[in-house]
Design brief:
The structure holds two protein chains of two kinds. By secondary structure, chain A is mostly helical. Chain A has five helices and two strands. In chain A, strands 1-2 form a two-stranded antiparallel sheet. Chain B has two domains: 48 residues; 69 residues. Chain B is 81% helix and 0% strand.
């Protein structure tokens, strides 16, 4: 599974810390998500997509 | 309050608790450690409520679940080995049989508790209640 979190986060000028605060997780979790080392819950994936103003389909590629 | 400040408070309380409990026990006072532990838990709980950052998220809970499963497996294996060794050595010392029985009951008790908590959480989940 790959994702565009890092790319979209940069496009929205958000730091990992800011994105983490928006979705209610620790910065480390965003780091793991971006590296593709963690499979998020559907809720977290949805929250990240909303925070980055995109869709789940656009954000994650299976 | 930041996460670092909270962690500092938690470490300070743990250190103070360790000192106060050891002093109280060495003086033969067993009520003071209980009060100190309860007071420490209340202070930590109150401090935790002041923290604005996220202290633990779904990844931590997932890791905690895996950690708990591993710990349970390791504990049960060690207790089982201990049970067999002590049972085999009961001819050398009859007390070993009692200790082996205690280990067996402790292990069974822990497994029972784990099953009860698991089915309770499963029940709550089926009713749509929060389990984390």
């Amino acid at each position: 599974m790959t994702n565009k979190i890092k790319e979209l986060r940069a496009r929205h000028n958000l730091t990992q810390e800011e994105l983490a605060q928006k979705v209610g997780v620790r910065r480390e979790t965003i780091l793991f998500l971006e590296a593709g080392k963690y499979n998020p819950s559907l809720k977290l994936a949805h929250d990240v997509a909303v925070a980055l103003k995109t869709s789940l389909d656009e954000l994650f590629k299976f | 309050m930041t996460t670092k400040q909270f962690q500092g408070i938690r470490v300070a309380i743990a250190m103070m608790l360790a000192v106060s409990v050891s002093i109280a026990v060495s003086l033969g006072n067993y009520l003071a450690p209980i009060i100190a532990i309860i007071a420490g838990m209340i202070i930590i709980h109150l401090a935790k409520r002041q923290v604005k950052d996220v202290l633990a998220d779904e990844r931590d809970y997932k890791l905690a679940g895996t950690s708990a499963r591993w710990s349970l497996g390791i504990f049960i294996t060690i207790m089982l080995i201990g049970f067999f060794i002590l049972s085999a050595l009961k001819d050398k010392n009859p007390e070993f049989a009692n200790i082996a029985t205690l280990l067996a009951y402790l292990t069974c008790g822990l497994m029972l508790l784990n099953s009860l908590v698991f089915y309770w959480l499963k029940y709550r989940e089926s009713r749509g209640q929060k389990i984390l």
